[in-house]
Write a structure and sequence with these properties.
With about 140 residues, this protein is of the alpha/beta class. It has four helices and five strands. It has a five-stranded mixed beta sheet with strand order 1-2-3-4-5, with helices on both faces. Helix 3 links the parallel strand 4 and strand 5. The mean pLDDT is about 90.
Amino acid sequence: MPTSGQVFRDEVKRRVEKVISEMGLEKRFRVETEYLSPHGSVVRDRDRRVDVAVLDSEGHPYLFIECKWQASSGTAEDKLFRSAEEARRDRIFGVHSVVVLGGRGFNRKVFRWALTEGFVHESFLESWLREFFKR
């Protein structure tokens, strides 16, 4: 049975595919889940699987999306700081990167911090994606 995080990841993937399709970009991009990043992890010396990856027509990473779901207070908040570092590193390597937040369980202070760091709330994801891909 899938966890809430997996269900959220699959929903984010569905929304990304929807926006790409609506914008007529299916020939330019494809979407994968659990994509093995060629950059590894910035925090740990090990492999890193990106929740949702948008690859260009040649199979190169174009956009990495990390999905963070928090239904109630817990450990996902701690992982947000690591996610911010991973996204910064992706950008250094030339891959666009964003973290999408879902659920109502994030501490208000941490949630505000995440939004100022460029994280995207699930309610704005499709609008964000449309703006991102139209450039």
